[in-house]
Specification:
The complex is a heterodimer.
Chain A: H1 3-26, H2 34-47, H3 58-81, H4 96-108, H5 115-129, H6 132-141, E1 143-144, H7 146-173, H8 178-200, E2 208-209
Antiparallel strand pairs in A: 1-2
Chain B: no helix or strand
The chains are: A mainly alpha, B little secondary structure.
């Protein structure tokens, strides 16, 4: 464990908690893409099946349980409890265009042709594009609530910190996982546009609105 | 056959 991975995990945890609390306290999921949240639930489910097969540490196991629990709770709040506030018209990204190619790629390019490894690879590839429905929805509505931008910032920062963690681990441990690194770079690049808007607008107290 | 790398990251 190094400081970058720790802060990456804490940023990821913050994002998940911010979103869950925002929906719970405002009793509304307006502006939130339910499709992205379903993709994240799939990412955690397919990645953390090793909860059943191996124990790495209390930290590792508890964080995985929290991620899985919160992501399913968030999906439940969006599609069940507060479904009346779900903006289905703007959450129109065709996720099948993500899942099918990602699934195919996971079968073709992986470290080991075993079920757990292919599911892990699928979750790594899927996570790198899972935020697209959310970013697409913001581009369609032309704006985002400030709390949603904080959620997105933490979500994007987490994998950016992981990139630094992988540089650290390569330098000090000789460890590197090309699949995770390439997917992590793609994932972080997808946030660059948002990062620019967040820093130039939200951090200056303005609302995040895209030029319609 | 490459050993599936131990997954210690989240």
């Amino acid at each position: 464990m190094n400081i970058f991975r720790l802060f990456g995990d804490l940023s990821h945890l913050a994002a998940i908690i911010i979103l869950l609390l925002k929906i719970w306290k405002s009793r509304s999921c307006a502006g939130i893409s339910g499709k992205s949240q379903i993709l994240f639930a799939i990412v955690f489910t397919t990645r953390y099946l090793d909860l059943l097969t191996s124990f790495i540490s209390l930290y590792n196991t508890s964080m995985k349980m929290i991620y899985i629990g919160c992501s399913y709770a968030t999906v439940y709040l969006i599609y069940a409890k507060f479904r009346a506030t779900y903006d289905g018209n703007h959450d129109s990204f065709r996720v099948e265009f993500l899942i099918v190619p990602v699934g195919g790629l996971a079968v073709l390019i992986n470290h080991d042709f075993s079920l757990l490894e292919i599911l892990w690879t699928f979750s790594i590839y899927l996570e790198s594009v899972a935020i697209l429905p959310q970013l697409f929805m913001i581009s369609k509505t032309g704006e985002a609530e400030t709390i949603t931008t904080h959620y997105l910032f933490c979500q994007g920062l987490y994998r950016a910190l992981y990139l630094i963690n992988w540089i650290w681990r390569f330098y000090f441990e000789g460890f590197f996982d090309m699949i995770a690194i390439v997917a992590g770079v793609v994932q972080t690049i997808l946030y660059c546009d948002f990062f620019y808007l967040y820093v130039t607008k939200v951090l200056k107290g303005k609302k995040l609105s895209l030029p319609a | 056959k490459k050993e599936a790398a131990m997954k210690d990251e989240l």
